[in-house]
Amino acid sequence: MKRVYNFSAGPAVLPEAVLKEAADEMLDFAGSGMSVMEMSHRSKIYDEIIKEAESNLRRLAGIPAEYKVLFLQGGANLQFAMVPMNLMKNKKAAYIITGEWAKKAWQEGQIYGEAVVVASSADDNFSYIPDCQDLAIPADADYLHYCENNTIYGTKFWQMPNGKGKPLVVDMSSCFLSEPLDITKYGLIYAGAQKNFGPAGVVTVIIREDLIPEVCLPGTPTMMRYKTHADAASLYNTPPAYSIYICGKVFTWLLAQGGLGAMKEKNEKKAGVIYNYLDKSTLFKGNVRRSDRSLMNVCFGSGNTALDERFVNEAKAAGFDNLKGYRTVGGMRASIYNAMPIAGVEKLVDFMEGFEKKIKG
Amino acid sequence: MKRVYNFSAGPAVLPEAVLKEAADEMLDFAGSGMSVMEMSHRSKIYDEIIKEAESNLRRLAGIPAEYKVLFLQGGANLQFAMVPMNLMKNKKAAYIITGEWAKKAWQEGQIYGEAVVVASSADDNFSYIPDCQDLAIPADADYLHYCENNTIYGTKFWQMPNGKGKPLVVDMSSCFLSEPLDITKYGLIYAGAQKNFGPAGVVTVIIREDLIPEVCLPGTPTMMRYKTHADAASLYNTPPAYSIYICGKVFTWLLAQGGLGAMKEKNEKKAGVIYNYLDKSTLFKGNVRRSDRSLMNVCFGSGNTALDERFVNEAKAAGFDNLKGYRTVGGMRASIYNAMPIAGVEKLVDFMEGFEKKIKG
User: Fold this and answer.
1) Contacts with B, A 238-267, CB within 8 Å
2) I need a labelling partner for B166 at 20 to 30 A (CA). Which of A54, B83, B260, B321 fits?
3) What one-character-per-residue DSSP string does A92-142 give?
4) Which of B160, B236, B233, B245 is nearest to B201 (CA)?
5) What is the ipTM, given to two decimal places?
6) Distance from CA of A241 to the nearest CA of B (A)
7) Mean pLDDT value across chain A
8) A192 with A169: CB under 8 angstroms?
9) Mean pLDDT of all residues in chain B?
10) Active site residue A123
11) Using one digit for the tens of pLDDT, what is the confidence trace for B109-141?
12) Are A63 and A111 part of one and the same domain?
């Protein structure tokens, strides 16, 4: 069996221990005589799986009782519409634009009302996070939406925007569970699982109960009302049952690793190894403002397209996969989510140093 | 390793060969050094997986080029809204009500326009299929919607409704790929994978290209436009990648079994074993009109709630799981989808005969 170091931005590397357990349980989960894929979502045994996943997630992220945890389908992309359909009562909301996904969320918001851009870093290809401490948020805005970690560009909000009392609605797809967080500061958090805590096909929504409306915008499908899923504890219809089971295993793994505090330490260490090298390299440099660097997605390049391509190919041959940067950015991107071991990052930097020596002599 | 005979209505039994392959490939798919769960959906290797799944499905079901095949999220439940949002141009459509899911589709249709009931079997607890050869379909109806196989009640349309020229939109969740079909007779077919061909979390939509609208009803989310997914070959956003990979394996397995003709033969044989027994039993009897019996979901009971419960419990202890009927029906339901082996059905009938002898003496 071969395993590479997989730097994919998502779907992304999962803990090997989780995959091994899943393989072992594939034909017979816990003596049930069936795979989790084959289980009725109304069965007692599956109910335990989904309830345990939720309770471990609550413990891990310190989610208070007044927040609902939902496991939904359609990814962050469907949340771009579900958020305004549920929350845009005044048909107005504020959006911060710090990358492609933040922009897509804003564009989708415009279908449902006035989606006001209150800050943007589009002027410099999203290479920084704008100052968001004194934004001109309309008084009747229903919420302030932003994307905490920008997967494509490699930036992160290290200071929370000042929402001036409006509920903060945050896309945390690429940083959720990578460090401790204070849930009570947010109105709604959503995160696709396929970056930091599971396979594609499930998006986790954490929503303060009082924000769940009885009535949504006209034309909202039943499946897109948060209330539908909150009232049914994510079992209104058949959920993405197997994906939730894998997420549950990742939650258990994260708890065993020491929880989010330990993950933060590990993630800072991993990112530090690459950024420290980039800061002294004469071949490669990081793409974004130092103070806004992401711990999850490290974007860098040599400034020479052909050389970048050669690097990506040679790295792949050496067992470091999926290092190519996003097409609107170019260069390289090393996504180093929770499940990427420190050894993977250290070996990558060894490889980069070797490559640099070969080029620069 | 223990395996039971799993009669769950969905998520349901999968071919053991598929599960074994999935387990073997869990940590390293085809020498890639990663699980399919960990693969970028934009990678070459995943592209081959999804393209092969689609082409095998096309071959299996004889899907002509002028039909698009989409792998989407949200299950049949989200299709209940997606169909009218895309197709209800005249804000009017006809619905046939033959069970809970058909009814839910109709209720959802009412959010978007006039959803006219043109036939129903609600008067006798959905125990039969109404005559649908001369329905009063409004002249300006955009489509006729029905559910071909009614999972909860155990009935099936053996004669196609006469749509009087309107596109037929059909929920085939619990019978798709159980027998050959003529795709050209339908406008749109949708089917959740978790009954007959895969795990939960993916719904397959087959839609005639000319029915895909440029413009949907106002307020339709980008993710709920068929065009969004058709233009991107189901890769507009991160798809439920692992679930599609498992579906692909089931398609390959179905082809190896001899395709849908062979499946129909096997499914008729399996259903025959149970129905023949029911027809001569003095303890159990089938719930529905004989001519409308489903090959996939066999609903039956003794007429005595306590005895039914005892049967379900003793059957479970003997290795026949998930035989309890749906709460609105009671009694028992044996779902015997493609992956249920003939031996499972034969042994179940042996068990039922033994139970009958014990009770009746």
Assistant:
1) 238-243, 246
2) B260
3) EEEEEE-SHHHHHHHHHHHHHSEEEEEEE-GGGTT-S----SS----TT-S
4) B245
5) 0.97
6) 6
7) 97
8) no
9) 97
10) no
11) 999 999 999 999 999 999 999 999 999 999 999
12) yes
- Contacting B residues, span 143-182, partner chain A, CB-CB under 8 Å: none
Which tokens hold the place of A341? 């071991």
Whether residues A238 and B200 touch (CB distance < 8 A) is answered with yes
Give the predicted TM-score (pTM) of the model.
0.98
Q: Which two tokens stand for residue A74?
A: 């359609």
In this predicted structure, the answer to whether residue B361 has a pLDDT above a threshold of 90 is no
pLDDT band for position A1 (cuts 50, 70, 90) = confident
pLDDT of residue B328: 87
| Predicted confidence (pLDDT) at residue B182 exceeds the cutoff of 90 | yes
* Structure token pair of residue A93: 């909301």
B1 in a structural domain: no
Is B323 found in the same domain as B263?
Answer: yes
Q: Are A265 and A335 in a shared domain?
A: yes
Q: Which residues of A touch B192 (CB under 8 A)?
A: 238
In chain A, residues 125-144 whose CB comes closer than 8 Å to chain B? none
Contacts of A123 (CB under 8 A, 6+ apart): none
Task: Tell me which chain A residue has its CA closest to the CA of residue B23.
Answer: A23
The range of the structural domain enclosing residue A90 comes to 16-256
Q: How far apart are alpha carbons B62 and B163 in whole angstroms?
A: 22
Say if A327 is an interface residue toward chain B (CB within 8 Å): no
The angle that helices A342-360 and A259-280 make with each other, rounded to 10 degrees, is: 0
- For residue B307 the two structure tokens come to 């005895």
Q: Is residue B6 part of a domain?
A: no
In this structure, how many other beta carbons lie within 10 angstroms of the beta carbon of residue A31? 9
Q: Domain with B90 in it: what CATH number?
A: 3.40.640.10
